[in-house]
Amino acid sequence: MRAQLALVGVALTATLSGCAAATPTTATPPPTATASPSPARVITIAVPKATSAAPALTNTGTSWLPILTSLSAYGQWLLANPNPALVGTVATPGCAVANLLSEQINGLLDSHAYVKTSPAAITSVLGPSPATGTQVVLDVVAARPAEPVISRSGARTISTFDAFPQSSLQVTLDLGADRRWRFCAVESAADDGATDDPSVPLI
Predict the structure, then answer these.
(1) What does each C-alpha distance from 67 to 18, 87, 108, 129, 188 come to in angstroms?
(2) pTM listed for this prediction
(3) Dist. CA 196–CA 191, nearest whole Å
(4) Across-strand partners of 126?
(5) Which one of 55, 116, 146, 164 is most buried, by most CB atoms within 10 A?
(6) Residue 181 CB: number of other CB atoms within 10 A?
């Protein structure tokens, strides 16, 4: 904290006979010390080596079922091999799916854990063909089994990602500059929310 210094002029007048008036004096402030702010402490969490190769992506064109299956499989691989730097491979940064996947991956890294994944069961996908613009909304029916979260150190179950029951969904995909589709949002078909609302945890 910085000290507040006041310059005080003190005039002393002699009250005893024969004493002269004292000369007013001015206090000289000490030099102000300048403290350099401490650098922010950066904590780096090591990303574990992947236990398997990433699945090949099929996310171009308008064959929506293979595209959605491929994107989902890559997202599942990321939960089994947490690496936040790869989220943008399958989800548009800033969109709901990217936010959810990043939170899940960072939580897994903090807990030194991974997910023993099960593929989503996608039974129906309807979408425009040909696609126009850089965003499409697909009508999807899908489900996902429960998935245990496993400790890397002790190979024990520490929690579980709850099963996602078969549901009608609206899945929004974005077309990137590389002409590849990526997740933006996964919402209940009854939800009219924006694409930055919390995503349905289908992956």
Answers:
(1) 104, 16, 26, 13, 19
(2) 0.75
(3) 12
(4) 139
(5) 164
(6) 27
